[in-house]
């Protein structure tokens, strides 16, 4: 009997860890469905709509990269709670389409996983909560320390920055961030 206890315990711990990892990804998928519905209602009503009753944030934008066939909803704010459910529009950064840098952050293993596949020249659409669409072209990417991004939010041009942890395949959080820069394409 005792010789089965250790393998059984190891198998149980492995199953629990696997289930926890699967739960994180399932939560991200379900949250995006609820966020997408709330974002559509926000555009239709002209008023911010919470994705669920206890939410402390609202969806404010949709980010699309058509070449990759990806779309993600962004939330107001970039707190850890907001980033658990989607990308976050960083407080104090510009609104999409306005002069300045509209800065969004998200986790590399869920909502901004697609950033690893974005190429310079790709078009990125950002749809705001008021339904206005703005198109940006990716023009630079770099890896920086989290405390030394050199992102200057003051500019006369409408720019977009998408940021996530680096490297993409790391299992733990590190000090580096991947930063993708894009400039708005005039209509």
Question: How would you describe this structure to a colleague?
Answer:
With 187 residues, this protein is of the alpha+beta class. The protein has one domain: Beta Barrel (Sortase, Chain: A), CATH 2.40.260. It is 26% helix and 32% strand. Helix 2 (80-83) links the parallel strand 2 and strand 3. The mean pLDDT is 89.
Query: Low-confidence parts lasting 5 or more residues at pLDDT below 50?
Result: none
Mean pLDDT over the residues = 89
What is the H level of CATH, i.e. the homologous superfamily? Sortase
Instruction: Give the total of domains.
Output: 1
Could you estimate the helical fraction of the residues in percent? Answer: 25-40%
Reading side by side through the largest sheet, how are the strands ordered? Answer: 1-2-3-4-7-8-6-5
Q: Rg from C-alpha positions?
A: 19 Å
Count of DSSP E strands? Answer: 8
Shape: globular
The H/E string reads HEEHEEEEEE
CATH topology (level 3) name: Sortase, Chain: A
Number of helices: 2
* Structural class by sheet pairing and helices: alpha+beta
Q: In CATH's first tier, which class applies?
A: Mainly Beta
Strand content: 25-35%
Terminal Cα span: 73 Å
What is the correct CATH architecture?
Answer: Beta Barrel
Describe the main β-sheet briefly.
Answer: 8 strands, mixed, barrel
